[in-house]
Backbone:
């Protein structure tokens, strides 16, 4: 089979579902298009589910159970896959992020994943485990995803990466002084790269801030746009460029009001020295 991607069911519950779906399909000798016809979707959709780029919906899993005669086993497995530490839509966002030409991030409260040091990511998720918000296994899943996202950015040519951090991202202590010092140093290193821009949106922007919640926007290689936004319990992926354009406009307005990169780095260096 040419260009057949190897699947690792240990990678995540979504990956395990995809591997099982492919195995059931292979046992029957069906192509992805043939399975798609039976389920009521495209072969491309089947490929995305099998490779873990798109999590299985309840409707998809029920249809697959009907086609394969597996009772409700796939439906139950899909429910487990969706109840991971990763919010709906984020896995698909990450898959697109790995190939995007431009990445724009606005984050509130915590440093975004692509800029987190391993120690910062581990400390952040350790506290979530202590609160009972996630399991230790889910914490490991989150930390692994941070490393995976960062590794995917080391490609040629590299993407352009624009990051605006709400000042709260710098002020929230995570993991103690040593962890925060290393994390702040990482931000300074990031700002010095030729393909990046780092800005801070200070508290005194007040009501001039056009965005209140974290927002990620991708410009793909074909110049289409994808956005991802989330609240505490919900993630929303938007694939239609016309719907993303107003968000991109708001992001540009945020950049215009935020501190320049030089002023932002100066603020971070002051924090490293322990001065306000």
Residues:
């Amino acid at each position: 089979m040419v260009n057949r991607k190897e699947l690792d069911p240990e990678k995540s519950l979504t990956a395990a579902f995809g591997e099982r779906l492919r195995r059931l399909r292979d046992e029957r000798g069906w192509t992805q298009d043939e399975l798609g016809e039976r389920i009521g979707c495209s072969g491309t959709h089947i490929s995305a589910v099998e490779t873990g780029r798109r999590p299985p919906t309840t409707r998809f899993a029920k249809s697959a159970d009907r086609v394969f005669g597996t009772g409700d086993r796939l439906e139950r497995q899909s429910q487990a896959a969706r109840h991971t530490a990763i919010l709906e839509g984020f896995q698909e966002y990450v898959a697109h992020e790995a190939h995007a030409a431009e990445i724009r991030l606005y984050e509130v409260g915590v440093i975004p994943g692509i800029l987190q040091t391993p120690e910062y990511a581990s400390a952040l998720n350790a506290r979530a485990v202590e609160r009972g918000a996630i399991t230790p296994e889910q914490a490991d899943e989150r930390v692994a995803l941070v490393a995976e996202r960062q590794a995917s950015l080391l490609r040629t040519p590299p993407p352009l990466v624009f990051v605006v951090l709400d000042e709260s991202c710098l002020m929230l202590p995570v993991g103690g002084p040593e962890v925060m010092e290393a994390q702040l140093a990482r931000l300074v290193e990031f700002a010095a790269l030729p393909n990046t821009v780092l800005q801070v949106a200070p508290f005194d922007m007040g009501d001039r801030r056009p965005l209140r919640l974290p927002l990620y926007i991708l410009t793909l290689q074909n110049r289409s746009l994808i956005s991802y936004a989330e609240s505490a319990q919900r993630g929303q992926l938007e694939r239609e460029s016309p719907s993303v354009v107003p968000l991109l406009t708001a992001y540009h307005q945020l950049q215009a009001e935020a501190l320049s990169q030089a002023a932002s780095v100066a603020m971070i260096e002051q924090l490293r020295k322990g001065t306000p």
Residues 90-113+152-272 form a domain with the Endonuclease; Chain A fold (CATH 3.30.870.10). The chain has a mean pLDDT of 89. The chain has two domains: 13-82, 90-113+152-272.
